[in-house]
Design goal:
The chain is α+β, with helices and mostly antiparallel strands. 23% of the residues lie in helices and 16% in strands.
């Protein structure tokens, strides 16, 4: 696999995600509006614990081990949640607005990308859930690149972004089997694989990706791994609070997460119980690996310092007083750019 000069990365603070789907819609409106892309969500935000998108993707296999790509299950459109069809024409343009209502046309689906939205685990009063946004991880060891016999998937030397050359793609879908995160889609109209491109046309113009730029919660940090003054290096390498999702998959993702804290538990008398966390540690370990316990303690320690009026570089970084500092130099105003479609 070709060596990259620099690696672009993203860190998402799960303590700030409110599940508003603004990132999802920003991506959808920009990149997946063409034929065959109606069911695609290059950016998705699922409720955890939940089955995710595609359904039960964590059990489908794939990954990168021993220097080779490992095949897994090929997700179907049913797993991904096919696009629903509604009677828009009848309601909005048929002159029947006073007599008909919006409804599903054809077979009613049994699964969708956010079918289990806002559903959690645990029992009252100690139920819990959190939101998990996902894009392509633009991995250091991308199983999709290794699995493609057409060499249609490349990892760019200049920034590590993983892209699909649709002119070379023949729709074999080995990449979809090998990707353990199942973030590659198949365009059934054009017969090619498609996925998140890290908004590379924006990156090349000095603008952060749409999902990060539009996030109202200020939770997405963007930058190069090797920039010591950038947010990525500070969160991942200095403070070590940015963790990859499922490091056990072996692909070395370049999308990292600050794991979620939760309110304390209550005992049977309704009093605060600090003896064990509301979100079970074993569940977070299953997602982010064993270091997540250490990271949660770092976050708690730094939060306590800030509450006591002491200086905390980490809390200042995560609070994001000046939002453009999240973007590692990709803070140019897109309104000042003359975009072309050539």
């Amino acid at each position: 696999m070709a060596e990259v000069k620099r690696q672009l990365a993203m860190v998402l603070d799960l303590n700030k995600c409110i599940g508003c789907q603004t990132c999802t819609i920003a991506c959808k409106r920009l990149w997946t509006r063409d034929e065959g892309m109606d069911y695609m969500w290059w950016n998705s935000v699922n409720t955890k614990p939940g089955r995710g998108t595609p359904r039960d993707y964590e059990k489908m296999g794939g990954g990168f081990r021993g220097g080779v790509a490992v095949p897994g299950k090929l997700p179907t459109r049913r797993d991904l949640g096919d696009a629903w069809k509604f009677n828009h024409e009848e309601v909005f343009y048929g002159g029947k607005a006073d007599r008909v209502h919006l409804k599903i046309v054809g077979e009613e689906p049994d699964w969708g990308p956010n079918w289990d939205e806002d559903q959690g685990a645990g029992e009252y009063p100690n139920a819990y859930y959190f939101y998990l946004p996902r894009i392509c991880n633009h991995c250091t060891n991308p199983a999709c690149v290794e699995s493609c016999p057409r060499k249609a998937i490349v990892k760019r030397e200049e920034d590590g972004i993983v892209l699909i050359d649709e002119d070379r793609c023949r729709g074999y879908r080995f990449c979809m089997e090998a990707c353990p995160y199942k973030k590659i889609y198949f365009n059934h109209a054009r017969k090619v694989a498609q996925k998140c491109i890290f908004c590379f046309p924006r990156i090349e113009q000095g603008v952060s990706p749409a999902c990060a730029r539009m996030c109202p919660g200020r939770l997405r940090f963007v930058g190069y791994r090797d920039d010591p003054e950038g947010p990525i290096a500070k969160l991942v390498d200095k403070w070590k609070v940015g963790l990859p999702l499922h490091p056990d998959f072996g692909t070395e993702p370049n999308v990292f997460y600050v794991p979620p804290l939760a309110p304390p538990r209550f005992d049977e008398n309704g009093d605060i119980d600090e003896s064990k966390p509301r979100i079970p540690n074993e569940y977070l370990v299953s997602l982010f690996g064993p270091r997540v316990i250490e990271v949660l303690e770092i976050l708690k320690t730094e939060m306590a310092k800030a509450r006591a009026g002491q200086k905390s570089e980490l809390m200042d970084l995560l609070i994001v007083y000046r939002w453009k500092e999240m973007f590692g130099g990709f803070d140019r105003d897109p309104a000042t750019i003359e975009w072309t479609t050539a």
